[in-house]
Amino acid sequence: MKAKIRAIGVDDAPFSFSDENVLVIGSLVRAPNYLEGVLSTEVSIDGTDGTGKLIEMIRDSRFYDQAKVIFIDGAALGGFNMIDLERLHKKTGIPAISITRDEPDFDSIKSALKAHFTDWKEKFEIVSKGEVLTVDTPHKPIFVKIEGLESEEAERIIDLFTVRGRLPEPLRISHIIASGVVRGESKGKP
Hints:
Blueprint: E1 6-12, E2 21-30, E3 34-44, H1 50-59, E4 67-73, E5 76-77, E6 81-82, H2 85-92, E7 96-100, H3 106-116, H4 120-128, E8 133-135, E9 142-147, H5 151-161, H6 169-183
Parallel strand pairs: 1-4, 4-7
Antiparallel strand pairs: 1-2, 2-3, 5-6, 7-9, 8-9
Helix pairs in contact: 1-2, 3-4
C-alpha cells in the first residue's frame, strides 16, 4: 500500500447505559496523521445496528472511494453493540481492523453477555469470530482482528498510522472529537 493512504478510524462517544443511542465518529485521515474529513452516525446502546450503521455511514460518504482501511476501536460500540468485521469488510469492500489495548477475555465476555442479553449467542458469535493477533508496538502490545488483509500488511498499516503511543491516529482523532462533542472537551485516554 502507498505511504499516503487514507483510513477511517471509528470510535464511540462517552455515554450512559440509560441513553438510547450513542454518537459514533469516523475520522478520515491521510497517513500518518492528516485529518481530511469527519463522519458521524448514532448506534443504539447494547443494540444490534452497529455494523449496519457503519456500513451506511461509510458507503454514503463522499470519502468512501478514498478509504483503504477501517480501524475500529474495540469489538463493539455503545456497550455491547458488536461490530461484525467480516460483514463490514464485505459490504464496504474496505479492509477492517479492530484494535484493543487489552487482550480480550472471551470467558468474561460470554458471562457478561449471558447475564444481560437474550440474544447473547448471536452477540458472542460476532465478537468471538476471527483470530486475535498480538501486535508489538514501541510501548506495549495491542490486540487486533483483521478482515481483508494479511497480518503483515495490517501491521505495516498500523505502524504507518501510529505516531505516538499504541493507537493509530484515525482512532485517536475520532476519540478526541467524540469526547469533545459530548463532554464539551476531550478527556481521558483514546
